[in-house]
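G.,

No rush on this.
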Amino acid sequence: MNNEKVALIFGGARGIGAAIAARLAREGYRIAVTWVSRPDRAETLVTSVKNAGGQALAIRADSADPAAIQSAVDATLHHYGRLDIAVVNAGVLRLGRIEDFQLDDLDATLAVNVRGVFLSVQAAVKRMTDGGRIITIGSNTAVRTGHAGSSVYAMSKAAVAAMVQNLALDLASRRITINNIQPGPIATDMTAAMVEQITAQIPLQRIGQPEEIASLATWLASEESGYMTGASLTIDGGFVL
């Protein structure tokens, strides 16, 4: 069991982040999750973990705000006294063709999906136990063609993949590994209205489940993954378009 280890999940109140948090809690990790717009989801998750005998903490933190990111790390350390795992799941999806794409949407995407990822990793590793784990949640759009209007989102996720590959070199001396999960279409609030359309583009003929991403994240958080770092792992049912 991992009952001494602490995992902080940025963007952990719902969807993939919540599935990762719940799975890590079942594996014995003490968890902290950040939320920005759904306190009810965060509290439901925390209550569920506690009712099952685990430890959980919800922290309001906008990943577009550097001070909030730092505060989330500080709150986790204050509550638990250590930090072993950081999962950077927070992200935004702004779509639009280049002729119409708004500067505010470009700035918002980069602020959360690129700058927010870098700052979350930076804040976490400064306080992380040597031998810890960093896991980012990217997207298969970094390596697959998505659809018209997704260029800015894809760009941001490709940036995360490149960042992870190189941050692995910065962190190797402390035996901290960093890896990037690149999910394809997953059954979340974001995809609820498009399941049939999306499924037609997936060779396995089904949409992925958040728990499948959580399973991979749990392995990356474990001691068993200690020789993997700087990798981007695509999990998308063979998505093609």
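When you get to it, here's the other one too:
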Amino acid sequence: MTPQITLYITKSSPYGHYVEIALRETQANYSVYEVDLVDKPSWFTEKINPAGKVPAISYGGSPAPADNPSPSSFKLAESLVILDFITDIFPGSNLLPIDPVDRASTRFLLNLFSTTLRTACVGIAALRESPEAVLHAIDKLQVHMPAPESLGQFVTGDTFTLVDAVAAAYLLRFDRCLERDIGSFPEGEGVKVHHILRTSERFTRYRAYLSTLAERESVKASFPEEQVLAQLRDFWVGNRASA
């Protein structure tokens, strides 16, 4: 029997989303606790993550409520570290290849996607940068996305890996937020960039990949779209209003 797993997240965050996607891909039995980062409970920093950041997990230990986890449970934070841990405790999940060379190559792509997409996300969410930052990020990564004529649906081929989990969490947010002009950028700029992404031949490969990710059950089941967009609108557009 698998030890208990509790995932602490806020649904608006792509970091927690890609961790949850990974857990769903393993078919793990886990529970989710949403942490209010605006009114963060004291027990979270005291018992889960002293840094107060999500995502975080507790693993193992005796059965206990999420807000009072067993002292014997293992606590872990930092999203990419948690992804590594998930692949270790579920080695048959195929989220990382077994072959050392393929595994290293996938880790390289994971770092590339997470760094590139995170930078673009921070820019449009908080730094009031042009949403064209998203265009540049996607353009940089498109060479690694499956071509429409290729046999594989995902970045490394036929198998969904951690790279695809990270890509899904960011790309879905970019697509939905730009479509609704949600961001710290000037009003109206998001819709323009969304139109380019949805119509330009330059982004054909991206559109095919996004469609594949959006239909993945682990992605759909962990993405309550309206809740996520409402939370992001409050923060991202709030930054625009205060400019």
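The two ends are 53 Å apart (CA to CA). Residues 183 and 236 are 5 Å apart (CA to CA).

Enjoy the weekend,
O.
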